[in-house]
Structures are given as C-alpha cells and as structure tokens.
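Continuing the series of single-chain predictions for the mutant panel. This is the parent chain; the variants come on the following pages.
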Amino acid sequence: MHFTGYGENFVRSDRSSQFYRGHQLAAAQDISDHVTIDVKDGICYDITAYMRFLLGAGISEHTLRGTSGQNWIPLLNFKAGELWNGYSALPYGRAIGFYDVKAGHIFHSAVAVGDIYIRSINGRTLGQNWSDRIDLTKALPYMGRNREGNFTHQKKPIIVYISKV
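Parent structure:
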C-alpha cells in the first residue's frame, strides 16, 4: 500500500490520533489525501485495511505497508466472518466483504460506517466514491434475496460477509 505524506503521519502517530482520524474518515472526509489511489490495483481492499488499521483492528504497521490490493482478502478473512442478513445494522468500522457465489471469490470490500451504511471506492453501487455513504439495504434489497439467502447484485448471486478482523 502506498501512503501520501499526510496518510503516513497517521500511520506513525499514536493510537488515539489514529482512532480519531479513522472516525473523521468514516464521517466522509476525503480519503485520497491519505492513500495513493490506483484504480487498477483493487484499491477498495487497501482503503478497507487502512481504515481497519486506524480503528484499531490489530493490523501491524509492517503488514499495512507490505500488503496491497487483493492480497488483503485472506488477511481480512471475510469468509470466517458472519453473514449479513439484509436488514440488521452493521457493526461500526468493520470490514465488509462481497462474495461472488458463481465466481467463488471476494470481489469488493467496504467499511461499515454506522447502521446499514458503508463507504468504499471503485465498487459502483456498492461504493464508488468515499464521499458516498451507501445504504446497503437499498443497494441489496432484502426482498431480492433468493432461497439460499444470497443477494442479487448485477444479476449475480452474492453473499455479504462481516469480517471479524
């Protein structure tokens, strides 16, 4: 992951400053002044990991610096998390993973920012710009679930995981 100078300051700052800044970012402050955004590298995972780091997830500074893009997927361990039921509040600050059932992999990640809202980037209706607070119940309506409990997103069955990391 690559940080801007401003983002680097928070990586090296004390836990209380990191936690405070994480809350500011969850409230929609621009995240691009913290992390260099490169669309081709699956940056949604980098942003999710950076936010989890700031909010005290136990991700080490070494791991934060040495991991990027889709390499975060096994570290965020989405599939070991709980399944979102389509209507319950998402735990604040937790990493949310979107799993494509047919393709068999996580295709997007986001951060829960209170109630049923998420923030992310490069995910179209699941969070294209950090400043957009996405109502997950509108993006993935409960009534649109199939018998297996999967949601339909862009005509594909998906599962929403709430990471424990």
